[in-house]
Amino acid sequence: MFEKVIGHSKIKKQLENSIRNNSILHSYLFIGEEGIGKKMLAKELAKAILCTSKDNKPCDICKSCVEFNSDNNANFQIINTEGTSIKIDQIRVMQSKIAEKPINSDHKVYIINDSELMTVEAQNCLLKTLEEPPQYITIILVTSNENKILTTIKSRCTKIYFNLLSEDEIKLVLNKLNIENINDSYLQACGGSVKKAILLKEKSEEYEQIDKIFDIIYKDNLVTFINNANVLYENKEDIYDILDYLNIILDNKAKEELNPVKYVNCIFIVEEVKKRLRANSNYDMCIDYLLINMWKELNSEGNSRN
């Protein structure tokens, strides 16, 4: 039923059973990291709910499915942010639409994407609908941060927690998107998120330069090494992702060594740089500290940490 969505087999089975048993609930809260398929599954669930076929939902043939696939189904809508938030006026418009009975269907489905970005006023407004939903409505809230959702909202939704995707599942999704040649370090760096994997691939040149750092760190003197590490100085906005990637490389190298201490010590250095950056220390000086100490650690005869 949900073949288009990679992973999340238990959740898909649970929802498939609800469709088959005609036991779909009025409100769900899909919870999990960004880029793991929550919104995609919410859309596929909506299409299945609205499908008018008696079997094989969603059928992709009935009028409802055809309209859904062309983004023209009057019984379905996704609420997205306007600017940086979802505002009370958006929820009020949604409520006015919900009050209208479905057209040529027994159901209506609304998805509120990035629902943690609803203002408090918007959430309190939504509460009225969640407390007394029309029989034909299903509302799916999608969030990557349930802590920003009011307790009163969460208590009225069935919460479904999504796990991170495995590296093999990430590969499957990327292959479907015709994104290939993702190395193991990239897959680890994406942390189970397809969205992050795509972002990493879009910045592949920068990450390839991080890989190359380890090609020269043993070959060149400190000055040459620093001069070849411009990627760290020039990517301030992405520095935490880059440092996480650097730690993955260090961790992998530590696993390959009989004496991994020097790489473990470099991970400590990276973590110290993160602390300094979060404390608003001078950016270039933090990168200087990182490169100098990492070079010294990996080129010193002794590998003990001071």
| Order of H and E elements | HEHHEHEHEHEHHHHHHHHH
How large is the share of residues in beta strands? 5-15%
Briefly note the structural class of the backbone.
alpha/beta
General form: elongated
CATH superfamily of the largest domain: P-loop containing nucleotide triphosphate hydrolases
CATH architecture of the largest domain: 3-Layer(aba) Sandwich
* Number of helical stretches of at least 4 residues: 15
CATH topology of the largest domain: Rossmann fold
Using only C-alpha atoms, the radius of gyration works out to 24 Å
CATH class of the largest domain: Alpha Beta
> What is the typical, i.e. mean, pLDDT?
88
Would you report the number of β strands?
5
Question: Helical amount among residues, as a percent range?
Answer: 40-55%
List low-confidence stretches: none
Separation of the first and last Cα atoms: 58 Å
Q: In oligomeric terms, what are we looking at?
A: single chain
Total separate domains: 2
Placed side by side, the strands forming the largest sheet appear as 2-3-4-1-5
